[in-house]
Amino acid sequence: MGNPILGEQSAARARISPFYSSQAWIEGRAEDQLAQVAAWPGMAAVAGFPDLHPGRFGPVGAAFLADRIWPQLVGPDIGCGMALWRLDLPRHRLKIDKAVRRLAVLDRGADPDEAASAWAAAGLEGVIGAEGLGSIGGGNHFCELQAVEEAVPEATTLRPGDLCLLVHSGSRGRGAQIFEGLDVSWKQGYAADSAAGQRYLALHDAAMAWARLNRALIAGLAAEALSCAASLICDTVHNQVVARDGLWLHRKGAAGADRGLVPLAGSRDAPSYLMSVTDSVPEALGSVSHGAGRRYDRASMHGRVRKTKSDLAALTRNRFGGRVVCEDRDLLMEEAGPAYKNPEAVMRDLSDLGLARPIARLVPLITFKSAGKAIAGEAE
Ligand SMILES: Nc1nc2c(ncn2[C@@H]2O[C@H](COP(=O)(O)O)[C@@H](O)[C@H]2O)c(=O)[nH]1
Ligand SMILES: [Mn+2]
Question: Which residues are involved in binding Mn(2+) 1 (predicted)?
């Protein structure tokens, strides 16, 4: 399938459990990748979710249980996640244009001294550095102001009209550096008790902490800019490896289903959901979708989007009367709403298959993207 990174195949293939309906938009290439990874040595089980799409090192929107650690199944953006925060700002007090101007502070990122002391408090400064903490990054990372449109009163304290922040970011250049600096034996997978495996796990855990702090600093900056307080609803990671049942569970673009709540990001032009999730379906490997998933790759979006000045200006508005702040023309096209699958269809599949139920539906009011370019591999 033309992916030089994919490892050697073994005779046996692990069980693959697809969690999507026959109507789901799933590329054949993504299913080929799923099958190929299922045949890697030591692979015990594989699950694919309705946001499944092809990735650089293997499919995205999937979970893999193996007897060893495969760093390529976590990818370079170790610890990437979605954090949902509730703001104590009522919607009627929000002035979108003013908020857009105020959120421009996100482009500068967190104060380096404050970021360094927050990182020092985490006790991991000797493992990886604090530089870059509190910045969104490129690619499909974002800080989005959302309004709750619908909520299930018995399941959440969120109410229609509440404002939230959804922050999607990861370990930025740190994760990419860790990935590039790995001992070459990673291509065959690491035994967890090997020196290389132990070193990877230590760096992975530091990158996870870095990414989580990054999301918190971004939310703090945004809340300060909007003169309100933010309280965390949930922060779920979707690129990680964790121990499970004596084996190693890799999540690539899949969130953990063991913490009760998970955001399902839609797109800048579609709703997102807060889901109540359950780890009661063993074949799902304690995992669930975290987004709608890519429908069209970045390169092909350039051919799908018209490029007149007014077409590009239209891409900075969404159908909910909201705004997209993105100075990078390429990113504006590559991340346009049609680049992603329909989140309602993804949500329906997860619900029908007993993995999650929607408890709130949120629409984007301001999607703030970095003006900068992605670090290679950062946003997969
Ligand atoms: N609410 C928004 N969701 C978005 C936006 N851009 C992308 N997305 C969704 O996020 C996930 C991220 O996927 P990952 O594999 O890179 O972690 C993606 O599947 C989209 O559904 C946005 O601007 N706003
Ligand atoms: Mn991500």
Answer: 141
Is residue 327 included in any domain, yes or no?
yes
**302 membership: H or E segment, kind and range:** helix 298-304
In a domain, 120, yes or no: yes
The CATH number covering residue 92 comes to 3.90.1860.10
Long-range contacts of 111-117 (CB under 8 A, 24+ apart): 114/217, 115/217
* Beta-carbon contacts of residue 345 (< 8 Å; ≥ 6 apart): 23, 24, 25, 50
250 assigned binding-site residue? no
| Average pLDDT over all residues of the chain | 94
Number of domains in the chain: 1
**Is the CB of 144 inside a 6 Å radius of any atom of ligand 1?**
yes
Q: Which domain holds residue 221?
A: 15-368
Active-site residue set: 290
pTM for this one?
Answer: 0.95
Token code pair at residue 369: 């993207």
The reply to whether 190 falls in a domain is yes
- Residues of the chain falling short of pLDDT 70: 1-11, 371-380
CA of 254 to the centre of ligand 2 (A): 9
Give the whole-angstrom CA distance, residue 57 versus residue 133. 26
| 309 has binding-site annotation | no
Judge if the beta carbon of residue 340 lies within 6 A of ligand 1: yes
Is 332 inside any structural domain? yes
